[in-house]
Design goal:
The complex is a heterodimer of chains A (about 250) and B (about 130). With about 250 residues, chain A is α+β, with helices and mostly antiparallel strands. Chain A is built from ten helices and ten strands. Chain B is mainly alpha-helical and about 130 residues long. Classes of the chains: A alpha+beta (about 250), B mainly alpha (about 130).
């Protein structure tokens, strides 16, 4: 058979077109079912929390325990490698903009509850190179651990120390694994997710549930009739490091 | 006429022989594909023993399905999957839904993955039933 240059190029073109369309086939043959939110899901435009330290006092321990148990957070007894979603710290560390030399001693040594602030303007989301950290449609700063490459830019960016890196396999450090929630693996960063998996089932966050005295109030910041807005309207509240412009959504009554 | 044809031809025969002998040796002796057991407590309770989509679809596309589930749950906050096969609803969770019925991970996951020599890293984070036991 005789083939000239023109015919050869034509055939090549058709082949190239075919090869470029072929991958589309697998996309079209993808998943066929539909997706829906859970029937009992609690929804909001912008989830927020108020921490009332006066009411919380004795529940602080219970709150952290409940969260860490629920989410399989390892208990690593080494400050440099510890993993935490919710923790306690002194006033001077959490609110150091407002610290002075003549602080009330009780206030200075009290243990305040701290967790991810779920910022309106999150630094961690801006710096994440893989979009593993993102803000979901309900205002929660979420992590997709499948995408996390462990670069720790988010940890450098977060001004609240709310993120922890898994320097080693966390499983040996989890006392009792909760079979309903995954663990993390070596090499990913993790943090509080405002219990989005519980909200989807119609449950309040684990820490809020553990604060029996109403020390933690949870609700929609964009809804003027929500629980959090009622508290914010009637009481004086502060945020951690507001001068940085991250607009934290965890408010404190001290 | 080719130079050194004798040596070249002998060399070629030896070369082809060495590189094809694993195939010649293994011809017609395929390892049998694993036959999966459906003998788990949850599956035995079912009247109709069918997966969430057709067996064929699940066999070919379960990895894509799981990836899409992850995006739906984590990114979009949709946690319920409505099957196209019969409209039944499922909570999208590898750990709590798939492995709830298929609690025999050694059969359901590992048998084929070992046979096909693929090592998905699902169980680095997701909790396999044997970890809880």
């Amino acid at each position: 058979m005789d083939i000239n240059r023109r015919k050869f190029l034509k055939a090549g073109g058709v082949l190239a077109l075919g090869l470029s369309i072929a991958p589309a086939k697998s996309v079209l043959a993808g998943v066929k079912g539909k997706y829906a939110p859970g029937p009992n899901a609690l929804t909001a435009k912008n989830w927020a929390m108020v921490v009332d330290m006066n009411k919380l006092e004795k529940d602080v321990e219970a709150c952290t325990m409940a969260c860490h148990k629920e989410h399989n957070v390892p208990n690593i007894d080494n400050k440099k490698e510890e993993v935490k979603w919710i923790w306690t710290d002194k006033y001077g560390h959490l609110f150091h903009d407002n610290k002075h030399d003549f602080m009330n001693k009780e206030m200075e040594h009290r243990h305040f509850l701290a967790l991810c602030n779920q910022c309106e303007n999150p630094v961690c989301v801006r710096v994440c190179p893989t979009k593993a950290t993102f803000k979901n449609k309900e205002g929660i700063i979420m992590m997709d651990y499948h995408r996390c490459i462990g670069c720790r830019y988010c940890m450098a960016g977060c001004p609240y120390g709310a993120r922890s890196f898994n320097f080693k396999d966390p499983r040996p450090y989890i006392e009792e694994i909760n079979p309903n929630y995954p663990t993390r693996t070596k090499g990913v960063v993790e943090k509080c997710n405002f219990c989005s998996e519980r909200l989807a089932k119609g449950l309040l966050p684990a820490c809020v549930e553990a604060s029996t005295n109403g020390g933690l109030v949870f609700g929609d910041l964009d809804d003027p009739n929500s629980e959090v807005r009622k508290v914010l309207d009637t009481q004086f509240t502060v945020q951690r490091k507001p001068s940085l412009g991250t607009k934290p959504k965890v408010f404190y009554i001290l | 006429m080719m130079y050194n044809s004798r040596n070249i031809i002998i060399g070629l025969i030896i070369f082809v022989g060495i590189f094809t002998f694993p195939f010649v040796l293994g011809a017609g002796k395929a390892n049998e594909a694993p036959k999966l057991s459906l003998d788990t407590p949850k599956i035995n309770e079912l009247i109709k023993k069918e997966p969430i989509e057709t067996v064929e679809f699940m066999r070919n596309n379960h990895m894509q399905l799981l990836s899409d589930w992850k995006v739906a749950v984590v990114r979009d906050g949709n946690r319920v999957y409505v099957s196209q096969k019969d409209g039944q609803e499922y909570d999208m969770s590898l750990q709590n839904t798939c492995l709830d019925c298929h609690s025999n991970k050694e059969q359901f996951c590992d048998a084929c993955h070992t046979y096909a020599e693929v090592e998905p890293n699902c169980w680095d984070c997701h909790v396999a039933p044997e970890v809880i036991r």
